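Following the same procedure, backbone shapes were mapped to integers, yielding the entry below.
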Amino acid sequence: MYTTVNEEGILNNYATEPQMYYAEYPAIWEQRKYALQGAFATLLVITIGLVAFSVS
């Protein structure tokens, strides 16, 4: 932790910054997994909407 002291003796604590890195483009199998998750999420939202519409 990085700490500084001003003229009045007040301490300022700063968190250490993490090491930066660039994100990598997802692999083909990861892209397919994301598409499948999106399809299931869309199906879930549509189902909840239809149930709410039919109940009301």
Q: What stands out?
A: Strands lie at 2-5, 11-14. The radius of gyration is 25 Å. Residues 22-56 form one domain.
